[in-house]
From TrEMBL, chains A, C:
Superkingdom field: Bacteria
Protein family membership: Belongs to the 3-oxoacid CoA-transferase subunit B family.
Organism (species): Saccharopolyspora shandongensis
InterPro entries: CoA_trans_fam_I (IPR004165), NagB/RpiA_transferase-like (IPR037171)
Keywords: Transferase
Pfam family, one: CoA_trans
Coiled-coil portions: none
GO MF annotations in UniProt: CoA-transferase activity
Name of the protein this chain belongs to: Glutaconate CoA-transferase subunit B
Lineage of origin: Bacteria, Bacillati, Actinomycetota, Actinomycetes, Pseudonocardiales
From TrEMBL, chains B, D:
Sequence similarity: Belongs to the 3-oxoacid CoA-transferase subunit B family.
InterPro entries given in the database record: CoA_trans_fam_I (IPR004165), NagB/RpiA_transferase-like (IPR037171)
Pfam families hit by this protein: CoA_trans
UniProt-recorded name of the protein: Glutaconate CoA-transferase subunit A
Keywords: Transferase
Length: 264, 323, 264, 323
């Protein structure tokens, strides 16, 4: 990334990849009420959205914390600073059963080692599950976030063919199309946005593939296609993503993460 | 892509959901709605029930595990077409006159009744809160209740039982009320609700509902709620209205606020036994009062002093703060 | 009842029916750890057992209260005095799901309008369910207490043919024999003791009928048979119940219910 | 009929279940047992895991939603035959070296692994706690996990779906550990356990188990627990042993007692990457310490001062007392 912004003090500071992704993701949260998010880029994006496009938006953490008012930027989803001064700490049964499966999350943020054109995700293994080349952490709550959130945003720092695959090595968290083929009625739209260092892929819901809908300035469609392991289709009206504005950068740098814990 | 323009960094505003009881009932309890009123002996949303009667709601389906005085009043008030319940009685203090008349004689109008056990109702709320198509439970085997309630069915487990044979179990369907109304000790303006003492099935009944009204003894400052987030039984995102209504659970009790009005419970069997006396009581105490404050004024301060409780404070716990 | 006991002060005081039933029921609790009980006779029995045959026994109330230490005798299972100073107050999901259905209750106490020879109970209606002569409160948690407790004790103040019936008007809370016929595996033994003003009926579990095993002094087998709506069998070795001892009566009157709220 | 002979009216004694960690592990964790160790990032029963290693337990099946450092240590300690989990990673701080070696290379010995999602594990505990033959959940449809885990099956709902057609749903089987071990802030001697901050799945994991060991920062007077019975997450009747073991969750945190040792989490990726270094670490810090007090002494007071937390006390609530 080579976007450059002017800092509040007037000196030019390079926009980091984290700032770019957080700013772009935050804009997608307009009109949303509840977000299920992990620490790092997703929380940066939601915190920025709270200060910009979605003032009332609430983050629900996988640890059960609702309405956090942390005194410092948390290091994990279970950080003690998220709990003190929060509005509610839910037991796991309520968090996963009533909030997530209950359908009270508008947008879930997920990451993954591999994603395919339908927005299915693999976070379990590279290679064969029974004798994996790399054993990854597995689902955690990802399968539930995928199955139950209204829609899912995926933020990927690196858009490359090893992650954007034609065939997943293993499907941990399936989108609604796979669920339907398995005879299970899906409750959410699955992945609707994939925000990467090259651009934004989007799909509307059941039956739709991820398509390229926007690119960062200077990124070409061919570049994104080359970085994608399937025959990626592009929208007819492809837009260019506006780089983080001075206001967004100032909020991120001065209010959301002044110690630059995640804005590295 | 949208381009945010916010220039300020004021703290994120929390929504203010406080409303009057009148407005909350008017907004969220339409005729024909399925209304869950929960609270197990403790924190019964009586004042909300009275306001439903004042506003003359019709054809409601009322879900309430322990259908007691407020249910009898709602039925007598002409608000209820159908009752979904697991216990229809005036606590340990006697009978519900109107409910029994409706079921036993069908007069002045029949009452549709869907019967469950307590855990059957709990499991219906659990299924509703979790968007499950059904919830399995170990009771109902051999009971006559499934014969009179076709909502209770069987499923065969895909795992063998202890004897290696296929195992069957009863299941109940989800209950998703149009609105759930509960009473609580306190909430903040956004709806983060704290309950202590008997917490019952309130959280699940709220999560299962499309809308939720929380009636509280006190609306408190955000800092009070945030000093003890584990005490929050219902988080703000599940709440649509917060109604401040002190003493709104009478004749039930609110732990730490006021005691149960045992005399009223005992008197209800007599009041409700005679339909004319019951209607006169409704005219005087519910239809004849403007709101719950008026009802309380009519009861009088002396009555309330008899229900006052003393102090038994919890030991605070330390949530800690990063140094 | 016409048993007479000598009060601690030396004067003869007639033993009430409540005292008799509470004392007899308490003796049956030896060796038990957890009891699910309502207010009234069952709590009197358990409180007496705590002071005599089962010091460690714990009452779990249908309201969710465990380890109550009430400052006064409670009026209902949800009385505020049961909650203040108690060891735990459980939400309904934990009480019914984890404690009761989870199999952590040794003995459940139940009452009923009607009972049959297999210990099946009716607490729903007298007459036809669809047009009942009397609408009773219904199950409450009785169905779950019956299905899930290790065993169930029933205390009936009045042993008569209107309650001890050959055919129930309606079966609210079935014992294990009815469950089996319905294809459901029972988890508990069902009713094992019925304690009445005439004597004690008992059964061991699946496949067994209630049999008369003991009578109060002066009560004949024929008297109990006449008060029972089915062809009641009596045990070969019928015992005579020892009336409440002076110690039991003193504990009941001075410690358990000094204000005689339930010992009327 | 039995004839009671008690002559005294002393208060009912509560059982005293306090034990040393050594005795509790020796009594309730035999070779080959299924052991659930729960605590979601917060209150991880690390000290109990270390004692299992010290006592050289073999062939355990370990159930733990977030299999993290203590799980890696147990595997490296040769205690574990099979792991049942929904997340195998060192929090956000890197990898579990031993676990990855066992699964990726099968060296020095293979590790049987049963994979779930978080809610899959939660539902297994829910089914276990409720003696249900299965528990339904809305995820798993289309996932490859059921293909590698035959315990995850489907059931057809007896109620039609929203389209009127038959509806299928996945279910998981109950999990009933031989023993569940959890860490908590405080308990009384009988086992009434209070937890604040993240309460996770601890209660359900305990209720699902045949036996339960509660490790606590403090054993407190009965009066402390009884001042706030709603704070009791696990009641005494579900508990078999209470072990006082301050700082027993390290490197995890205990809300209000000490903070997370982030440096240790980060260092674990390096320690566990090299099998020899990992065994040397186990020799020095676990096998080479007599107990957790010894481990703490070795860590040193200075280390602990860096994890100290300040004060943020909850506002007390009034439980009331009848006047």
């Amino acid at each position: 990334m080579n976007a450059v912004s002017t800092s509040p003090t007037g000196s030019a500071v390079a926009v980091t990849s984290s700032e770019l992704l957080a700013a772009v993701a935050s804009r997608e949260l307009a009109g949303k009420n509840t977000v299920f998010a992990g620490i790092g880029l997703p929380t940066l994006a939601v915190s920025l959205a709270q200060l910009t496009v979605a003032p009332g938006i609430e983050i629900v953490y996988e640890s059960g914390v609702c309405g956090a008012h942390p005194s410092q930027l948390p290091e994990t989803i279970a950080d003690a600073v998220l709990i003190t001064d929060s509005e509610a700490v839910l037991p796991m049964t309520a968090l996963f059963g009533y909030v997530l499966q209950g359908g009270r999350i508008d947008v879930g943020f997920l990451g993954a080692a591999q994603i395919d054109r339908w927005g299915n995700l693999n976070s379990s293994v590279i290679g064969d599950w029974h004798a994996p080349k790399v054993r990854l952490p597995g689902s955690g709550g990802a399968m539930e976030v995928m199955a139950n959130s209204g829609e899912v945003f995926v933020v990927m720092r690196r858009h490359d063919p090893r992650s954007f695959m034609s065939e997943l090595d293993f499907c941990t968290s399936p989108g609604p199309d796979r669920a339907l083929r398995d005879g299970i009625r899906p409750l959410g739209a699955g992945v609707t946005r994939v925000i990467t260092d090259l651009g934004i892929l989007a799909r509307g819901g059941v039956g739709e593939e991820l398509r390229l809908v926007a690119t960062h300035p200077g990124v070409t469609v061919d570049q994104v296609r080359a970085a994608t392991g399937w025959d990626l289709q592009a929208a007819d009206e492809l837009t260019t993503i506006e780089p983080p504005t001075a206001a967004e950068l100032r909020l991120l740098r001065e209010d959301v993460d002044p110690d630059r814990v995640y804005l590295r | 892509m949208q381009n945010p323009v916010a220039e300020s960094t004021t703290p994120v505003p929390r929504p203010d959901k406080t409303m009057t009881m009148r407005d909350a009932i008017a907004a969220f309890v339409p005729d024909g709605a399925t209304v869950a009123l929960e609270g197990f002996t403790h924190l019964i949303p009586t004042a909300a029930g009275h306001e439903i009667i004042r506003q003359g709601r019709k054809d409601l389906t009322v879900a309430r595990m322990t259908a007691d005085i407020v249910t009898d009043q709602l039925i007598a008030g002409g608000c209820v077409r159908k009752l979904v319940s697991s216990f229809v009685g005036n606590s340990t203090a006697g009978s519900l006159g109107e409910l029994r008349r409706r079921i036993e004689t069908g007069r002045p109008a029949p009452l549709e009744f869907e019967e469950y056990s307590h855990y059957g109702m709990i499991c219906r709320y659990l299924a509703g809160a979790q968007r499950l198509p059904f919830y399995p439970l170990r009771s109902y085997g051999g009971s006559d209740v499934p014969a009179v309630n076709p909502g209770i069915r069987k499923v065969t487990s895909p795992f063998p039982g202890p004897d290696g044979e296929a195992e069957q179990i009863y299941v109940v369907p989800p209950l998703n009320p149009d609105v759930t109304i509960v009473h609580a000790q306190r909430a903040d303006r956004a709806g983060n609700t704290q309950i202590w003492g008997l917490t019952g099935i309130q959280a699940e009944a709220v999560y299962a509902a499309k809308r939720a009204i929380i009636v509280v003894e006190e609306v408190v400052a955000d800092e009070v709620i945030r000093s003890d987030p584990n005490r929050t039984v219902i988080p703000a995102h599940a709440v649509d209205a917060v109604v401040a209504c002190p003493r709104g659970a009478h004749p039930a009790f609110a732990q730490g606020y006021y005691d149960r009005d045992g005399d009223f419970y005992r008197s209800w069997s007599h009041i409700s036994k005679d339909p004319e006396r019951l209607q006169a009581w409704l005219d005087e105490w519910i239809r004849g009062t403007r709101d719950h404050a008026d009802y309380l004024e009519k009861l009088g301060d002396e009555h309330w002093s008899g229900l006052a409780v003393g102090e038994a404070w919890s030991e605070p716990v330390n949530y800690g703060r990063r140094l």
